[in-house]
Design goal:
The strands form four sheets. The protein has a five-stranded antiparallel beta sheet with strand order 3-2-4-1-5, with helices on one face. It has a domain of 293 residues. With 529 residues, the protein is an alpha+beta fold. It is built from 19 helices and 13 strands.
Length: 529
């Protein structure tokens, strides 16, 4: 065993990737619907670090992983973050988070006041560790020296493990329903034009009072399918192709023109056909769907939009993303030209602008390094929270001059998932020896305190969001991830609640709660020291 420990110590990169491999193997184990996912990488890392206590990894390695993850999250969810801040749901999420952090700090101060042997410096370190906030730990060290590191080293792994366990248990026991927002199914209806009142009417005029979401996309005349244009005049025996997402609305719209007669238009693809095109053109990504110019001679009509694994309604105001698949109805002869407009390159959807990443990360790290003055407290820095704030802003802006900040969904997922995995492996290995030594030295005191603090963070947030504000569980899981702060918790939340809400909740809450934790530690530390 000693020889294996020595070997791992001499091969740090091997140890990191061995930890990643074993972590994902362990994370794939499913017990009654509960599995750790990528969060298991941290626990394997703790075991490897305790087994090889002399194994030293450069902190820069973990920091690179963390910044890749945070930058990817910010770029992906910048628009949702800023919309959330101005929404009622965003206000509720922030209020619930503030209540939970305040309750956790109250418990910390109560332990200092009433439990013998608990010192303020170590307790604030446990508070920072339970919230997995390195920035808050740095604020405590600035006041108390190295003392807070003891509480932090014990509480940090618990700050990851306890939320994962509590979220998993609640999900397994309550089985909360998940609403997949944004997913739609595009329906079609073919109708013979027989109603006397619409004969001679232009399609533009006939479409004015159609139910919301229903469109006339093509017309069949003299056994040929032709694109629907506003100037086309309706004639007897025409067949209209209507699309929409609501069956009742489609039936209602069809009844205004005549009787439904499905089959002829969909089966005949000699004149018009349907095809999906990948968005890989940087000039198109970031544009509103309504601003995409398809020349009239192409005879094309956009019917459908698919993003990641979700079908979306092609609203004119919807912004196109790299990797979107746009469904178009057009003559086959127009397909090559339409492909050039959208890019239509699968390979292109996996490429990113490293210039934009370099500039964006530089701006974020620079902003996070600025020391901000606070009255009666001193100065503080945002650290990686500043990087996330800048990434959220850039993700909201999407494009600035020559810089295309947004990136393909697939590339973004690879970037941030690899960063998260690398960060967890490094943190686990680096904390393993200290964690074991602190447990042996301090006993269960700070172990119990750290567990109680993080349990309060999770339970209070869950109670306020789900049972007071009646928010859906997937949104609550993201908010809990943001309050507790660790990416592993967000990864687990995405696993048990596979919608976009966990990422949005995390991006909306993590920056503000990081700043709040820093301020609270600095205020309490300054007044109590």
């Amino acid at each position: 065993m000693t020889s294996i420990s020595t070997f791992l110590t001499a091969q740090p990169l091997l140890a990191v990737f061995l930890t990643i491999a074993l972590g994902y193997l362990l994370g794939a184990v499913n017990l009654g619907g509960f599995s750790l996912g990528s969060g298991a990488v941290l626990f394997v890392g703790l075991a490897v670090g305790a087994f090889a206590p002399k194994l030293v990894l450069p902190a820069l390695l973990g920091n690179v992983g963390l910044l890749l993850f945070l930058y990817g999250v910010g770029i992906a969810y910048g628009a949702q973050f800023f919309r959330g801040l101005s929404s009622a749901e965003g206000a509720k999420a922030n209020l619930a988070s503030v209540i939970a952090v305040a309750a956790a700090l109250a418990l910390t101060l109560a332990a200092v006041r009433w439990i013998p042997g608990v010192e303020l410096g170590e307790a604030l370190g446990a508070f920072a560790g339970a919230g997995t906030s390195t920035a808050a730990l740095q604020a405590a060290i600035a006041v108390f020296g190295t003392a807070p590191a003891t509480g932090y080293s014990v509480a940090y792994p618990l700050g990851v493990a306890v939320p994962i366990l509590l979220l998993g248990l609640y999900n397994a026991m309550a089985k909360p329903p998940l609403e997949k927002r944004g997913a739609v199914v595009m329906l079609t209806e073919e109708v013979d034009v027989t109603e006397f009142g619409v004969l001679g009417m232009t399609l533009s005029h006939a479409s004015r009072n159609l139910p919301a979401g229903v469109s006339i996309v093509a017309i069949r005349r003299s056994h040929h399918n032709i694109p629907a244009t506003g100037e086309t005049t309706l004639e007897r025996d025409d067949v209209l192709l209507l699309t929409g997402t609501d069956k009742a609305a489609l039936v209602n719209a069809a009844s205004r023109f005549g009787t439904s007669d499905p089959g002829r238009m969909v089966r005949d693809r000699s004149d018009l056909d349907y095809n999906r095109f990948f968005v890989s053109n940087a000039k198109i990504a970031g544009k509103r769907l309504g601003d995409v110019e398809l020349a009239p001679e192409l005879g094309a009509r956009i019917l459908h939009l698919r993003r990641s694994d979700a079908d979306l309604h092609p609203d004119p105001d919807r912004l196109l993303e790299f990797g979107d698949r746009v469904g178009v109805l057009a003559p086959r002869a127009s397909f090559p030209e339409i492909g050039k407009i959208f890019g239509d390159s699968v390979r292109g959807t996996g490429e990113v602008s490293y210039i934009a990443i370099g500039v964006g990360v530089t701006l974020g790290l620079g902003f996070g390094a600025i020391a901000w003055p606070l009255p009666f407290i001193g100065r503080f820095t945002l650290g990686f929270a500043g990087l996330l704030l800048i990434a959220l802003f850039l993700g909201w802006r999407r494009r600035t001059g020559p810089f295309q900040w947004s990136m393909p969904v697939s590339a973004n997922l690879v970037l941030r998932n690899f960063g998260l995995t690398l960060f967890l492996a490094v943190v686990g290995i680096s904390s393993g020896a200290t964690f074991a030594a602190t447990i042996a030295k301090s006993g269960l005191l700070y172990l119990l305190l750290g567990s109680a603090i993080v349990a309060v963070l999770v339970i209070v947030t869950l109670l306020v969001t789900v049972f007071v504000f009646r928010m859906p569980f997937d949104a609550a899981a993201g908010i809990i991830s943001g309050v507790t702060g660790n990416p592993a918790i967000l990864s687990f939340a995405n696993r048990i609640a596979p919608t976009d809400r966990p990422d949005i909740g995390y991006a909306m809450i993590f920056p503000s709660m990081t700043v709040l934790k820093i301020l609270l530690v600095q205020v309490v530390g300054t007044w109590g020291n």
